[in-house]
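Q: Got a minute? One more chain.
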Amino acid sequence: MTGRKTIDVGRDSKTGHFIPVKEAERRPNNTTVERIPKPGRGDTKGEPSRRK
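A: Always. Here it is, folded:
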C-alpha cells in the first residue's frame, strides 16, 4: 500500500476546533487546513504540502 501517511483536517483559527475541510476552504480568512499523521505514523517529512 503506497497511500498517504497523513489526512487533511480543517481547523477554526479562533476556537481551534476541527471542522470539515470543505468548510475551511470556504472560509480561508478564519480557518486553516492542516495535515495530521494517521495513527501509528509520526513522521510526515516526505509528504507534499497542501498548497494548490
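A: Residues 21-26 form the longest helix (6 residues).
Q: Perfect, thanks.
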